[in-house]
TrEMBL record:
Role of this protein: Subunit b, of the mitochondrial membrane ATP synthase complex (F(1)F(0) ATP synthase or Complex V) that produces ATP from ADP in the presence of a proton gradient across the membrane which is generated by electron transport complexes of the respiratory chain. ATP synthase complex consist of a soluble F(1) head domain - the catalytic core - and a membrane F(1) domain - the membrane proton channel. These two domains are linked by a central stalk rotating inside the F(1) region and a stationary peripheral stalk.
Keyword flag Transport: yes
The protein's name: ATP synthase subunit b
Location in or out of the cell: Mitochondrion; Mitochondrion inner membrane
Length: 245
């Protein structure tokens, strides 16, 4: 009977674990898991027992009322009552069960820790295998996020580079415009200076020609008598000035 109960408990735990793993995997695939509201199931440790099968809670229940020896006294008294009243008859199956119990107890105490250690290692290996895939998936997603952030940063850098190129082109256009404006200013100033210098030269030539024409005509108009009279008048003026001084 105990073996059937143990098998049913093991099957129930296995089915519950499978359901939890399937539900957890489905939720992980569907989206981001909410660790706060839906934490991942953690493999629980079995409760403490005494004498190999009696739960520790039973002893704690008697301890507050009967002390430390209460649970043992109750167990021995109950067994004595059952045996004395022949409620539990010690027939041949009783001794068979007692023998099986002793063999199971010996096997449990002798090989139980080793088997338990081996089974714990297997469970840890299976659990680590499940977690390894999940952790690797998380790492891949985190790496993908980092790569996406790097790509966005590079895209922003390209935008800045394009903006800098546009500004550089605008500066080049401005420099070309100013250079052309300077060339136009230089050409216009050179032509204006040429026109001014041409006007000045023409004016000087005209003045010189006018002066030469006036001097020539005046010289031609003076007769020798007028020249002699003008010379005598000048000498007389000089003499008068000399007499005054």
């Amino acid at each position: 009977m105990l073996s059937r109960i143990a098998l049913r408990s093991a099957a129930a735990r296995q089915s519950a674990t499978t359901a939890l793993v399937a539900r957890g995997s489905a939720s992980d695939v569907a989206g981001v898991r909410d660790e706060k509201n839906f934490p991942r199931p953690v493999r629980g440790e079995p409760g403490k027992v005494r004498l190999g099968f009696v739960p520790e809670e039973w002893f704690q229940f008697f301890h507050s009322k009967t002390g430390v020896t209460g649970p043992y006294t109750f167990g021995v008294g109950l067994a004595t009552y059952l045996f004395s009243k022949e409620i539990y008859v010690m027939e041949h199956e009783y001794y068979t069960g007692l023998s099986i119990f002793l063999m199971v107890y010996y096997a449990t105490t002798k090989f139980g820790p080793k088997i338990a250690t081996w089974l714990d290692k297997e469970v840890d290996a299976v659990e680590s295998g499940w977690n390894e895939g999940r952790v690797q998936n998380i790492k891949d997603l985190e790496q993908a996020i980092e790569d996406e952030k790097t790509s966005q940063w590079r895209a922003q850098g390209q935008e800045l580079l394009i903006q800098a190129k546009k500004e550089n082109v605008l500066l080049q256009l401005e420099a070309a415009y100013r250079e052309r404006m300077m060339n136009a200013y230089t050409e216009v100033k050179r032509r204006l200076d040429y026109q001014l210098e041409k006007s000045n030269v023409e004016r000087r030539l005209a003045q010189k020609a006018m002066v030469d024409w006036v001097v020539t005509n005046v010289t031609k108009a003076i007769t020798p008598d007028q020249e002699k009279q003008a010379l005598d008048r000048c000498i007389a003026d000089l003499s008068a000035l000399a007499a005054k001084h």
